[in-house]
Design goal:
Length: 120
């Protein structure tokens, strides 16, 4: 079950899990995100019509594009349809996500290589 229904709204959708070993296509997408300087540990990335959106901007766009069917989708739309609300609420929600990921024992993705730079 998808929590946010996008595919039916916008057509073909490609999800990239940066924690999995990437395919050539996924690696190209991750390289584009790296070149743009977007830290995926600090926010999701949405590419729409050739434009990259990061963090609260990505959530705002997803909310506007997703269907309004189901309680979660309506709540997501109400919360993130406003750019101001998205800017205010995204950081604490991201912090909770990062705490959960750390609690599960997962390492940061570090797509920008910051951790490796600090140790050299």
């Amino acid at each position: 079950m998808r929590l946010v229904r996008l595919q039916g709204t916008i057509g073909r959708l490609q999800l990239v899990d940066a924690r999995e070993k990437p395919s050539a296509v996924n690696e190209a997408i991750l390289d584009e995100i790296r070149r743009a300087g977007l830290d995926i540990d600090q926010g999701m990335v949405l590419k729409l019509d050739g434009q990259l959106y990061h963090g609260d901007e990505a959530m705002h766009r997803v909310a506007l594009l997703s269907s309004r069917s189901g309680i979660f989708n309506r709540l997501n739309y109400w919360v993130f349809r406003s750019p101001r609300r998205a800017r205010l609420l995204y950081p604490p929600l991201r912090s909770i996500r990062n705490i959960v990921i750390k609690g599960l024992g997962r390492e940061p993705i570090d797509n920008l290589g910051r951790d490796s730079d600090a140790s050299s």
